[in-house]
Amino acid sequence: MVLAIGIVGGIFIGRYVADIQLSPEEQKLRTILGLIREQYVDDIDIDSLMEKSIPDILASLDPHSAYIPKSELTITNNELESSFGGVGVSFQVINDTVTVVEVVSEGPAEKVGMLAGDQILSADGKTLTGSGITTEDVFSTLRGKEGTKVKLKVKRRSSRKPLEFVVTRGEIPSKSVDVTYMTGEDTGYIRVSKFARNTYNEFLEALADLKFKGAKRYVVDLRGNSGGFMDQAIYMANEFLPAGRMIVYTKGRRPENETVAVSDGNGQFQNAELVVLTNEFSASASEIFAGAIQDNDRGLVIGRRTFGKGLVQNQTMLPDSSAVRLTVARYFTPSGRSIQKEYKRGKDGKYEMDIVDRYSHGEFYSQDSIKLDKSKEFITEGGRKVYGGGGIMPDIFVPEDTTGYTSYYVEAMNHSHVLNFARSMADSYRPLMKEKTLDSMLRIIPRDDTLLNNFVQYAAANGLPARWYYINQSRALLLNQIKAVLARDLVGFDAYIRVLNDSDPALHEALDALKSGRSPVKIVPGKTVSKKTVSKK
């Protein structure tokens, strides 16, 4: 009896102590939930009510803290851990609309022509817009058995009318270093599409393979890479830096969230020349890598300003197998820059619309449209000025190339005429391929004039009238896109990117910088040698 009384007394004392430790606001919330449970006119499931409220609470903190329900956790983790089934897009629900953040390389959505920035309006007739839409709703419609089809209605900024894509669900490739090849005698190209658990190992293998083929210089393409695991970016940067160079550091409220990553001097490519390609969809871990290379004057960053995500999340499992990704720190580049772009607590919509705003005020096309915050000026290891407050600004700005963009070209791309034409051609030419190489493909397909004429006839038969004034303006673009899709279907994804890169101004700028000496500030272990030619552009 004494033991029982002691246990019961301990329970009541424990509850009393817990109650007095609650803040007035926490006690208020508990009281409100109690009133709803006991007195509300209808019977309410309090657990369900809390499940709906938690995402709003976290969203009021910052743009990247998030609640992951139990039903979504496995799917969400799989996107960085391994292969998974679906349509092959990463998305965010922005302003009550499903916005594609990334289209997975070689995935089903990429094969039908979907692009980052597309807004998914519906799937198989089910509306995916409105205040009630959740990520769980999106997953339930996009995911499905491999081989099944889903019809997506999509809004794209270059099209006045919604576009429709029929996507065949399939396994989504988990490879993160998805394209590697030699461009020239001594320059290797590596495209990293995400930072997954195995990215560093894939990256190191790619570097070694290119070095074996004669590479002394490297172009690392992070365009469209929305990030992932921070440690993988640190390991990659370490390969290029001499000992004792800071790569990144984090600051948080708690000591365990304050870390410093410093190069150990064991990198195998410390003296190799390097260029990093970025754009507005390069985020998080991509910015860690680019920032480390830029701030240490180890290489040039070329392209457009990066996304600007400098918040670090820690995932904590909850008792019901759901999880919370809570922002616990900010990360800073070696010069001291926080590259996190500005945001206001709560859903004001401005943060989510930042990329659209950049496009609207001309930043994609003119460096002069970028307003640098001079109050956030920092100095690199070699004495160059760099700026914080909103992404990594490239050393050499390359605008979005709209040369050849006409209404004919845009319609041909948006309505998949190029895609469908190339696929029909691929079926005809596949039996003629003696070997599965790009050179073999280019030998057997028609010459440019014939290829373009055949496409124009095909498009006209499918509802796109021939307008030769615009067709001639878009000639180079149309031919490049047709050959690229043919290369993907007949040879592989690697060949697809190689063909697209043939007319890529950012890559051409990178190769020119490497050849002309405007490439990196050369660094040897323990010593930095500045090049005046690297100063500014």
Walk me through the structure.
- The chain is of the alpha+beta class and 537 residues long.
- Strands 3, 4, 5, 6, 7 and 8 form a six-stranded antiparallel beta sheet that branches. Strands 10-11-12-15-16-21 form a six-stranded mixed beta sheet, sandwiched between helices.
- Strand 17 (311-317) and strand 18 form a beta hairpin.
- It is globular and about 80 Å long.
Short descriptors:
537 residues; alpha+beta; six-stranded antiparallel sheet; six-stranded mixed sheet; 37% helix; globular; disordered C terminus
Tell me the β content: 15-25%
Helix content: 25-40%
Q: What general form does the structure show?
A: globular
Count of helical stretches: 18
Report the structural category. Answer: alpha+beta
Question: What's the short version?
Answer:
This protein is α+β, with helices and mostly antiparallel strands and 537 residues long. Strand 19 (377-379) and strand 20 (385-387) form a beta hairpin.
